[in-house]
Amino acid sequence: MPELKRVPANGIEIAYETFGERGNPPLVLVMGLGTQMLAWPDEFCEDLAARGHYVVRFDNRDVGASTHFRGVRAPHVAKIVARRAAPPYTLDDMADDALGLIHALDLGPVHLVGASLGGFIAQTVAIRRPEAVRSLTLIMTSTGSRRVGQAHPRLLRSLLTRPVVSSREEAQDAVVETFRVIGSKGFALDEERLRDLAGRSYDRAYDPGGYRRQLAAVVAQPDRSEQLRALDLPALVMHGLHDRLVAPSGGVAVARKLRGSRFIGFSGMGHDMPRQLWPEFTHHISELVVRVETGRLAAAE
Predict the structure, then answer these.
(1) Is 0.90 topped by the overall pTM?
(2) 62 φψ region: left (φ > 0), alpha (ψ -120 to 50), beta (else)
(3) By C-alpha distance, which of 227, 236, 7, 58 is closest to 141?
(4) Are 278 and 148 in contact (CB under 8 A)?
(5) Could you tell me if 236 and 136 are in contact, meaning their C-beta atoms sit under 8 angstroms apart?
(6) How large is the C-alpha radius of gyration of the chain?
(7) Would you report the helix, strand and coil content of the chain in percent, each value rounded to 5?
C-alpha cells in the first residue's frame, strides 16, 4: 500500500501518494468532481509506475484527506445550477493547488493527467503555467464552453439531487446507483470495486458540502477554447463515445483546440474508467510520456 503523505500547498494541505521511482519522469493524476484520489486505482497507478514513471495522485481540496472548507457555507444546488451562487473558490484556485503540490514536491515540469473535473483543472494549470507541464492527457472532459460537452438533461436532473447518506452502506449504495446511470453501458458494472471504493472513501471523509463547493467552481468555469488554442504542448484526449454526463463533443472540441493533440474515443464507455480499458489507458498515457521524454533527451544532446 502506498504511504499517505501531506504537504502545505497554496495555503492549504494536500494529501498525496506516490508510486514508482522518484527519479523517473513525473506523472501527476488529477481526479474529478467530489471524488478522492482512490478513484485512480492502485493497479492503474502501479502499471504506470512499472512502465517507468513516477506517479503522484492526490486529493483535491474538499475531498479525502486534503483540506476541507467546512467553515465556508456550501451553496444550494438549485442556486448553483441557476448560476446565482458565487463559488467559494474557482478552478484557478484548484489549479494553483496542483501547482503548489508540484512545487512543494520539487517535481519540475510534469506530465499531467486529468479526468472530468480533473481535466478542467489540468487544462487550467497548462494555461496558467505552461512551463510547468511536459504533456497533457485529458479524459472525459471539455473546454468549458456551453456549446459542447453538455450532460443529457434527464441525467443532469437526477445527479444534481444527490441523496444524503448516513452510513457506510448507504454511501456504497449511492455510488453504485450513480454509476448505473453515468457508467459505461458497453462494459459490465464492477459493483464489487465500486462498493469497495465508496466504502473506503466514506471512511476517509464524507463531505457533501465539499461536493457542492466543487460543483459551484465547475458551473462557474470559463470557456477555455481560445486559451487552449494558444497552447503548444504534446496532448492526448480520451473520451467515452457513450458518455452522457460530459458528451463526447466536449472531448472532440478540446482535441481540436489543442494543436497537435490526438483524440481517442472508446465505444461503450460512459463517464467512468472501466477496468477493461485500464491497460489501454495506461498504454496511451505511457506512450505519450515516452515520446515526450525521448524528444527532451534528443534536444539535450
Answers:
(1) yes
(2) left
(3) 236
(4) no
(5) yes
(6) 18
(7) 45, 15, 40
What digits encode the pLDDT tens for the residues 10-28? 999 999 999 999 999 999 9
**Edge-to-edge, what's the strand order for the sheet holding 12-19?**
5-9, 12-19, 54-58, 26-30, 110-115, 133-139, 235-240, 262-266
Alpha helical stretches, state H, 144-238:
153-160, 168-182, 191-204, 208-219, 225-229
H or E segment at 139?
strand 133-139
| Grid cell 446507483 in the structure block, residue | 177
**Cα separation, 90 vs 170, whole angstroms:** 30
> What's domain 5-151+207-300's architecture?
3-Layer(aba) Sandwich (3.40)
Helical residues (DSSP H) of 230-277, grouped into ranges = 248-257
CA-to-CA distance for 118 and 113, rounded, in angstroms?
8
- What gap in Å lies between CA 181 and CA 183, rounded to an integer? 6
Mean of pLDDT over the chain: 95
Q: Compute the distance between CA of residue 103 and CA of residue 78 in angstroms, rounded to an integer.
A: 37
The β-bridge partners of 297 are: none
Q: How far apart are CA 2 and CA 19, in angstroms?
A: 7
Q: Which amino acid is at 246?
A: V
CA within 13 Å, CB half, 53: 29
Q: How far apart are CA 237 and CA 123, in angstroms?
A: 11
Q: Can you tell me the distance from the alpha carbon of 143 to that of 145, in angstroms, rounded to the nearest whole number?
A: 5
Residue 161's pLDDT band (cuts 50, 70, 90): low
In a 3-state reduction of DSSP, which class is residue 91? helix
- Domain ranges within the chain, ordered by starting residue: 5-151+207-300
